[in-house]
Amino acid sequence: MRISELKQKEVINAEDCRRLGFVGDVDFDLCEGRMLAVIVPGPGSFCGFLGREKEYVIPFCDICQVGDDIILVRVRKKEVEEACKF
């Protein structure tokens, strides 16, 4: 799978079925040649004028399943709420 294909997939939290967004970036360990995390841009701030608030950095171990259209992750509710605060 290519990184460009990952960016087209929507990330869904399996804990509460919340849509987190689409993959924005991927964190790799070049020395070991493995993926460490996927990064999903957080919700937009005031009408999108001031950019984005925070981002979700989801470790590889928290990815449950990668499907054709979505990526299921298991993120604790507290972490999601902290990233969504304005």
List keywords for this structure.
3-stranded antiparallel beta sheet; mainly beta; SH3 type barrels; 2 helices; globular; 4-stranded mixed beta sheet; 86 residues
Q: Can you walk me through this structure?
A:
This protein is mainly beta and 86 residues long. It has a single domain, classed as SH3 type barrels, CATH 2.30.30. It is 14% helix and 40% strand. Strand 6 and strand 7 form a beta hairpin.
What's the layout of helices and strands?
Elements: H1 3-6, E1 10-13, E2 19-22, E3 25-29, E4 34-41, E5 55-59, E6 63-66, E7 70-73, H2 77-84
Parallel strand pairs: 1-7
Antiparallel strand pairs: 1-2, 3-4, 4-5, 6-7
Question: Which regions are unreliable across 5 or more consecutive residues at pLDDT < 50?
Answer: none
CATH architecture: Roll
How many strands, which pairing sense, and closed or not: the largest β-sheet? 4 strands, mixed
User: DSSP strand (E) fraction?
Assistant: 35-45%
Trace the largest sheet across and list its strands.
2-1-7-6
The backbone outline, from C-alpha atoms, is globular
The third-level CATH topology is: SH3 type barrels
Distance between the termini: 35 Å
What would the average pLDDT be, to the nearest integer?
Answer: 82
Q: Which homologous superfamily in CATH is the superfamily?
A: PRC-barrel domain
Task: List how many beta strands DSSP finds.
Answer: 7
How many helices in DSSP terms?
2
**CATH class label:** Mainly Beta
Radius of gyration, whole Å? 13 Å
- Helix and strand sequence: HEEEEEEEH
* Classification by helices and strands: mainly beta
Count of individual domains: 1
Helix content: 10-25%
